[in-house]
Amino acid sequence: MKSTEDQLNHVMVEFYEKLSSWEQAVVKDNGYSLPQIHTVEILGGHGAMRMKELADKLGVTTGTLTVQIDKMVKSDLVTRKPHESDRRSILVELSSRGQELFREHDALHLQLTAELTAEFSDAERMQLLNFMKRINAEF
Predict the structure, then answer these.
(1) Among 15, 41, 71, 138, which has the highest number of CB atoms less than 10 A from its own CB?
(2) Is 15 part of a structural domain of the chain?
(3) CB of 44 within 8 A of CB of 99?
(4) HTH marR-type domain: from which residue to which, for each copy (predicted)?
């Protein structure tokens, strides 16, 4: 019999793979790349950010992010604006179209969460929420 650690590892990897496949399918349907959607998710959840902050949250270099943001500006998903108190910094924020895409994509996440936890009791949902918060805090 596998150890609890082995079982947890297997289940977490399986969940990640299934969630990634779901995300890829959703993204493919709207014509944007997965990195673009992740950028929209972060900006939608956190608001306007400096390029360095955004790159850190995405786990990419500022050079890689610059290329991506250029494409997203052309697609009218984001805009660049000068930082109010630091003239050397540029902030990236969602455009109206980017905000709309964020709401649409967030609704899909909410729907998936509701479907996955439909058979859970309120207590089980709270347990899952608390466990997920603890896991996320480790990153």
Answers:
(1) 41
(2) no
(3) yes
(4) 5-137
